[in-house]
Amino acid sequence: MNKYVFRCLLAAFGAGGGPAAYAQTPANPAQPWGSWFIATVQLPGDAAHKWGSYAEVQARTDAVFRHYFYNELKAGLSYDVDPNFTVLLGTGRYTTSDYRDLGQGPLNVEKRLWEQVVLTQFSHRLKLEHRYRIEQRWLRFRDDSTAFRQRFRYRLNAFFPLNKPTITAGTMFLSAYDEIFLNPNGPVFERNRLYAGVGYQANAHLILQVGFVNQANYNLPAYRAGQFVPQITSAKNNVVVALTYKLAYRAGAPAQEHLPSQQD
Hints:
Elements: H1 2-23, E1 34-43, E2 51-63, E3 66-82, E4 85-96, E5 108-123, E6 126-141, E7 146-161, E8 171-182, E9 189-201, E10 206-218, E11 222-224, E12 227-229, E13 233-246
Parallel strand pairs: 1-13
Antiparallel strand pairs: 1-2, 2-3, 3-4, 4-5, 5-6, 6-7, 7-8, 8-9, 9-10, 10-13, 11-12
């Protein structure tokens, strides 16, 4: 008799708990893969000309090669304090839309100014780049509301040439980086961006890189309508295709090795 009651109780709990379990929504639902397209024109500094500059356009899609929703237009002016120490002042315009209804205009438009320091280290074939950035961000939303935000970023980027000791014309190379985004107003740890890819420098000017980036955004726990909302992580993988064209001064010093860093 006891065995019969025990089995009935198990069946009852299974029938009652099954639908509830299936109805639950994951706290951090997986998102479909997207894609980033990056085109950059760059004038690096050299031993004779310490000033440099760049301009870049970027487009992103919510799905792989479709559902366009985001673009960036950026430019910057740099100065080489020495071959391994560069400072840069940059500005950009960032537009986010709903890919399902592009005709309604952007959801928000951001104008950004940033100050940046880049330090490089060379150890045989392994090349490391430390990038420190402070951003000032002005946002305007579709309902005409505005916001001002600041952010701090640090990126550690590693490069490893495969068929040559340095990254010059005809070099295949591996590239990987991790970047953290810090917000003084919270969440302090706002975003993490992890990239891995392969690149090829065809000649003194043209560089192609293909890889993937995982971008995870974090929010703050909060109380809404009397209910506790835990921290939610929204992470998305993206295919990255980046094309860089490097200019050169006409009467400069002998070409030096420049790391093929992505400017974003």
